[in-house]
Amino acid sequence: MKHKFKTNLLIRDKRLDWMQKRGIKVDWKKLSDSDFEEHLRDKIVEEATEVSLERKQDGLVEEIGDVFEVIEYLMKMKDISHEEVKKAQDKKRNELGNFDDRVYTMNVEIDSNNEEIEYYFKNSHKYPEIKKRQCVRGIIRNGDKIMLLKRNKNGEEYYVFPGGGIEKGETKEQTLRREIFEEIGAEITNIKLLADKQSEAYYTCDVISIRKPTGDEYKNMKPNNTYEIVEKKISELVDLKLYPEGIVKTFLDIK
User: Fold this and answer.
1) Separation between Cα atoms, residue 102 and residue 87, nearest integer Å
2) pTM for the structure as a whole
3) Which residues of 31-65 are buried (b: 16+ CB within 10 A; e: fewer)?
4) Of 119, 139, 140, which Cα lies nearest the Cα of 129?
5) By the 8 A CB rule, do 194 and 186 touch?
6) The CATH number, out of the four listed (3.90.79.10, 3.40.1260.10, 1.10.10.10, 2.40.50.140), of the domain defined by the range 135-253
7) Among candidates 237, 252, 232, 251, which has minimal Cα distance to 147?
8) Is 161 buried (19+), middle (13-18) or exposed (0-12) by CB count in 10 A?
9) Tens digits of per-residue pLDDT, 15-69?
């Protein structure tokens, strides 16, 4: 019984002889110039992928050599000299620098009227746009005190107002009620908008009742990322490491 496997692969000349001597029947053809060029381009991607996966030093040297070999063939096909490549390298280094500082970007934020934004839109397959999900947070009054989350993240202690991201199909008020119930177990009333920003909206509200929180974060806290529910007098807010500071000032100004 014989088994046939699809390959669709550009291989080295002696590899064909190696396979045939081992009883492997190879269905092959000699590529035209145009096809050879296209498959060389594919081969560069294949070999570069193997470089990225190789972790052993000797294997890495071999894989890098394979990349160079394929590039040499493509240069020959396109009549590109080493001098031309070196000149292009030097030009880019002079204009954009090199990789000595090991700069790695996670994301970029650009105003919609900045002409550079077109580059990212045209290359969205490489740079997908991050759609911001607006959050809502509550300044929750419980009598003469404000309910807060006292967070401890990797040893840093700070305070925030309870709340979270709007889920699909929810209104802002529905999200506020759900998040506050999940995080601190409170049912709320008298909801009034304090500030509506691009990324977050803040509301004042009053507590009706409190029970044990139901949210996953509360039930599954990690040692390096915890929170506790605290209550502070309004006069104490200005002395806390409470984020965002601007909202605290807005709240106190209208109080």
Assistant:
1) 23
2) 0.54
3) eeeeebeebbeebbeebbebeeeeeeeeeeeebee
4) 119
5) no
6) 3.90.79.10
7) 232
8) buried
9) 999 999 999 999 999 999 999 999 999 999 999 999 999 999 999 999 999 999 9
